[in-house]
Amino acid sequence: MSKSLKARIGPSILNADLSKLYEESLKLLSNGADYLHLDVMDGHFVPNLTFGHPVVKCLRSKIKEAFFETHMMVSKPEQWIAPMADAGVDQYTFHIEPITNVEEVCRKIKENGMMVGLAIKPGTPVSTVEKYISLADMVLIMTVEPGFGGQKFMEDQMEKVKYLREHYPLLNIEVDGGVGPSTIGYCANAGANMIVSGTAVIGSEDQGATIKLLRDTVEDAIAKR
User: Fold this and answer.
1) Among 42, 176, 206, 216, which one carries the catalytic annotation?
2) Which CATH number is 2-224's, of 3.40.50.2300, 3.30.830.10, 3.20.20.70, 3.30.700.10?
3) N or C terminus: fewer CB in 10 A for the chain?
């Protein structure tokens, strides 16, 4: 069953040169990225501010084919569903912590033609998201506190990944935060198949080789399951 899972590497552009967002994105895709992970922060849910749907729409106007995932680190994820759909987003991943109407948000995302990703912070029990898995295309387990790039990987979060993989063999499980060549083994062995890597890929002297290493590690783990 697990062999139908695919290893997918989605670099986060949070640590890229945002004045050259288009060029940086093209470089990542040409070096083997499977999708682009776009971090959207509102300065409320997390103490940082990045970009919104106008920037995503501009990027989509130049990059037609790539899969765009927006990681919505925002207090009111329902507010940005229609604008992000209009901007050309493929998957809308939002945090369940700030809201009570998770089912309604999932429904609106699907009505707007996007896939649903559910994200939880390190302090949120996996049981909190489990009740909504039937509504989701993917679950994101944060391996750092959301809000800033370059943080240290939290190995203890792998227990959540292991639990989900054991109970949901075909679920797309994404990890995000401090993931790179030195930590990918933990993620792959725990069962993550979608890998977000920011600093480790963006700052690599050979992005293609780094992306390949991440993908090969995950594919090897999938093959062994």
Assistant:
1) 176
2) 3.20.20.70
3) N
